[in-house]
C-alpha cells in the first residue's frame, strides 16, 4: 500500500465522521468537498465551511454545491484526478475487505460442516455414547447458531458491496445540481427548499424575508418583457450585495424573492428588510436601445421567524400572509409592524 493510498484513505476516514456529525448527504460532490475540507487543501474553502458551520450549524446544500463549483469543479484536471483517486482508493480498500471477509466466512462454513460430520461419525462408534452424544449435540447446536450468524454476515457484506458499487456509478456519472436561476444568477426555488429543509433538520434559528416587486406586470406591459427582465436582474444584484453574514437570497418565482437569515429574530429581520426596501426604491433601470427608464421600482415584504416547532411550509406561509397584507395596504411596505 503506497504512502499516497494511505494518506488518501486516512483523510477520507476523517471526513466521513464529520459528514455524519453534520448530517451531510453522501453524494459525490459532498465527498469531494469534505475530503478537501479535512485535508485543508484549500484555505478559502475551509474558511467558508467554518463560517457556515458557525452561522447555520451545518452547511446548506446550495452552499455545498456553490463551494464545489467554485473551488473544486474549476480546478485543473490533475487536482480533480487526485480527489477521484482518493475516493477510488477507499472504495477499493472496502471492496477488498468485503471480499476477504466473504471468503473467510465461506471457509468457516466448510470447516463447521466437516467437524460436524466427524463428530457424528465418532458418536456412531459407540464409544462413551452418553458423553459423546452430549458433546455432539452441543457442538451441533453451536454450529447451527454460527451458520445462521455467518449467513447474515454474508448478506450484509453483499449489501455493502452493492452500496459501494452504487457509489462507484455515482462517481462515474458525476453530479450536476441545477440550483441556479438562469436569468438572475440567484439560487432558485429548488435550492431554497433544500436549504429551508436543512435549516429545519439542523434546528438552525432563522427568519424569512419574502418580497414581491410591486406592479411588475406594468413594466412588462409598458416597456416589454426585456425591460422586465432587466428589472428582475437589477433587483437580484442588489439582493446579492445586501446579503451578509450567511444570509442567502433566492428567486422564488416570477417577481418574487425570498431570503433566509440565519440566527436572526423577527425584529432584526424586519429592520434589515426595511433598509432593503429603501435601497430598492432608489433603483433606476434603463434600456439603452429604447432609452426607456424605470425609476419607480418598489417591493412589498412579509417577514416570519421560525418558532422551532413548525415545518418550513408553515413559516413560509406566514411570511406570504404578511406579504399579501402589505400588497393590500398599498404596497411598498414591510409587515408585520412591530
Automatic annotation (TrEMBL):
<feature type="coiled-coil region">
    <location>
        <begin position="150"/>
        <end position="181"/>
    </location>
</feature>
<protein>
    <recommendedName>
        <fullName>diguanylate cyclase</fullName>
        <ecNumber>2.7.7.65</ecNumber>
    </recommendedName>
</protein>
<feature type="domain" description="GGDEF">
    <location>
        <begin position="204"/>
        <end position="338"/>
    </location>
</feature>
<keyword id="KW-0175">Coiled coil</keyword>
<dbReference type="InterPro" id="IPR029787">
    <property type="entry name" value="Nucleotide_cyclase"/>
</dbReference>
<dbReference type="GO" id="GO:0005886">
    <property type="term" value="C:plasma membrane"/>
</dbReference>
<dbReference type="InterPro" id="IPR050469">
    <property type="entry name" value="Diguanylate_Cyclase"/>
</dbReference>
<dbReference type="InterPro" id="IPR000160">
    <property type="entry name" value="GGDEF_dom"/>
</dbReference>
<dbReference type="GO" id="GO:0043709">
    <property type="term" value="P:cell adhesion involved in single-species biofilm formation"/>
</dbReference>
<dbReference type="InterPro" id="IPR043128">
    <property type="entry name" value="Rev_trsase/Diguanyl_cyclase"/>
</dbReference>
<dbReference type="GO" id="GO:0052621">
    <property type="term" value="F:diguanylate cyclase activity"/>
</dbReference>
<dbReference type="Pfam" id="PF00990">
    <property type="entry name" value="GGDEF"/>
</dbReference>
<dbReference type="GO" id="GO:1902201">
    <property type="term" value="P:negative regulation of bacterial-type flagellum-dependent cell motility"/>
</dbReference>
